Amino acid sequence: MKTLYLDCGMGAAGDMLTAALFELVPGQEAFLEELNGLGIPGVETRAEKVSKCGIGGTNISVRICGEEESESMYDHDYTNGHEHTHGHEHEHDHTHGHDHEHDHDHTHNHEHAQDHDHDHAQGHNHIHNHDHTCSHDETQAHTHHHHSGMHEIEHLVETLSVSKHVKEDILAVFHLIAEAESHVHGVPVTEIHFHEVGTMDAVADIAAVCLLMDKLAPEQVIVSPVHVGSGQVKCAHGILPVPAPAAAYILRDVPIYGGEIRGELCTPTGAALLKHFADRFGAMPVMRTEAIGYGMGKKDFPAANCVRALLGETEDSVDTVAELCCNVDDMTAEAIGFATEALFAAGALEVYTVAAGMKKSRPGIVLHVMCREAVKDEMVKLIFQYTTTIGIRENISKRYTLSRTIENVQTKYGVMRKKVCSGYGVTRQKYEYEDLARVARQEGLSVSEVAALI
Description:
22 strands; alpha+beta; 12 helices; four-stranded antiparallel β-sheet
């Protein structure tokens, strides 16, 4: 199984994840051209080879209207009430966004006043409302100059030159951040304004990671426990603990730990990207590594300041899943079908029903929902929301699966997708039902006839 393992021993943020994955893709110059041609106004992404603790890697920087923001204004980490300089300011995430919704309305043309006490941590995603003067009118007209809500973010993402799947990933990451900000500040998601995560540089980093994940197409993504740092950070609202509230909320159900390094190592943007793409968090599996990427920050520490990405093959797949069950005897078939669709849409691995005889001789069903443990609580909530049950049972099980890949096969009916499953000495393959059904409708044939013809 094609597996991506992300080592987050020095936390995670958008630009470092971008750089680590960037090192894994072939044709890096071509990818940079593609990234800079997505249509994000005024933004240019650059890659530079650097070394940390004797390890070579890549640093990613985002320039807006030809300029990269200065780090000097973010060089303050507040630990136990004392001011320290530390090395994660503005380096993990060149989305320049705090990813926390603070009421700072900075208008500057890169003449940074030194009274900004915001800790950029590892690229703490400080996105300020810059008054950049660009040569492109379309850039000046864009949301980089204004606070943006989810509606503006959705509109911008829709204009990007990426696939529908990548757009969905980008928006899912933003929604995780918006949900966290909503919870932290006690306001509806519709009132969250991304003056700290929604400008062009934030979109650039999140889009880059989503595009790279789409190109690498791992069958599973495993992430190490995440080092979040320690101490405190100072922002417009005051002194906050590390991890910052938005990051802490996103990292619920994720194994995290602190350490001796003072500062914010995992930004909310980094946390949201990990939460969205990770199939599970834990130790590195037994795998044959084929490529390794190092995404570097700018500052130096005793430990190498990087995210490490390892891409390789695991022989057979074993993971842990939660199986949630409940008995229902007073729902219509339509209502059960609607609940099933809602659970699948929310990320259930499998949803199925088994006919059963209930008390008082009533016919009913036992609803089974299989899901990853990370989304178990959400599934419990949805089962109670969409069914009439008043109790749910839980079983934690190991699941053995064959590795799955999709091949595009050219046929006389056009390109058709074929699923190939292998592992444990077994190989199976079959064409995707949707493709068979499409040809069957076009040709007036049965699905089995189309399968035989191709």
